[in-house]
Amino acid sequence: MMKLMVTFCLLAFQLAASACSVPVFRYALERWPVSPYFAVVVADAPLTAEEQAAVTLLKKASDGVSGSLNLMVRQLTTEELAKSRRTEALPASKGSGTRMHLLYPSAEDIEVPIWSGPLTRESARKMIDTPFRKALAKKIVEGNCGVFILLESGNKARDDAAAKAMDGYIAEVAKTLKLPDGVVEADGNVTGGGPIGYDPIDRLQSAIPLKVAFTSLRLPRKGTDDLMVALLTHLEADLKTYSDQPMVFAVYGRGRALPPLVGAGITLDNIGAITSFLTGACSCQVKSMNPGVDLLLDYDWDRAVFGQD
Questions:
Q1: Could you write out the DSSP letters of every residue in 96-107?
Q2: Which of 21, 134, 248, 301 is the most exposed place for a label (fewest CB within 10 A)?
């Protein structure tokens, strides 16, 4: 699993020779829109006032005006759901109450639901935002090339050791990394000291400082952001078998998470491969051709990155 992830990153890093100069992390932040998740509400009877309030809360949070959550809400009857391609992956309904299922973006082709449960205002609020997700997004727009999330195992000694190793590896590899030459920054400076290029693809679109910088966050398995934990641990089918191991997820762009490093896979070489990929020239500008899955975040990226009102 870890070898596959690193190979994937390196292949993406070494793609077509017609690469633009802008590094992957910055190209993703400025030019890749986030993909929407789906909240599927299954109900045959009219919604109760509580249930309708929950749906309204989610729709308002994702309307692009009151909120920027990358989520689409779909209400289906059981008959309509039966015709959906994702029917078999959803757990059977329990009881007569209205159920809701949170699904990954269609482009990710991950059929397993992240969460399934009763449609309530509490469940809706958990989908919308948490302090952890706010902190994650803030660290990205501060100019970090990536944020490494250490998903804890619950074993304090093991988690502390993994966190210390991870942070040490990040600091070590950051000393050796160099941004691509030829990037035209907002103030007109060009990385590498070359002449200003005229190809728009080599120009930054925001004034966020361009620098080599990484940071990290620790995420407990329970109590801080249970939905984020579920989202991360469903990215690959076999991750549930490693629940006793710490996992490291690198997040870049507008909250795009790479496949994890798990337990003994948290190494200097693997951290180095990830950081090299993120700071290297964006060799493939097509988002779907690059590794990672967008996270569920209520964050106005355009306003934060470009200062748009």
A1: SS-EEEEE--GG
A2: 134
